[in-house]
Amino acid sequence: MADSLTDLLNRNAAAYEFFYSLTPQLQQLLRHRDIHTLDELHRAADDIMLRQRPQAF
After folding, report:
1. pLDDT digits (tens, 9 = 90+) for 17-55
2. Which of 9, 34, 37, 52 has the most crowded Cβ, counting Cβ within 10 A?
C-alpha cells in the first residue's frame, strides 16, 4: 500500500471505514493510486467502479 494511502487510513477514521467497506478487489486497485485525502479516495473508487461497469449495448 502506498505510504500516502496508509497515512490517510491511519489518521482519518472516515477514510478507514470507507476503504474497508469496499471489496478486496477494489481495495487492491486503490493501493496503486496516489491518494492523500478522503475526497481523492472517494473519486478514485468512483472512477474504478465506473470503469468496471458493464457497457450498455
Report:
1. 999 999 999 999 999 999 999 999 999 999 999 988 766
2. 9
Domain residue ranges of the chain, discontinuous segments joined by +: 3-52
Whole-number Å distance between alpha carbons of 15 and 42:
9
CB 36 within 8 A of CB 44: no
Instruction: For residue 10, give the amino acid letter.
Output: N
Q: Which residue matches cell numbers 481523492?
A: 40
Please tell me the total number of residues recorded for the chain in this structure.
57
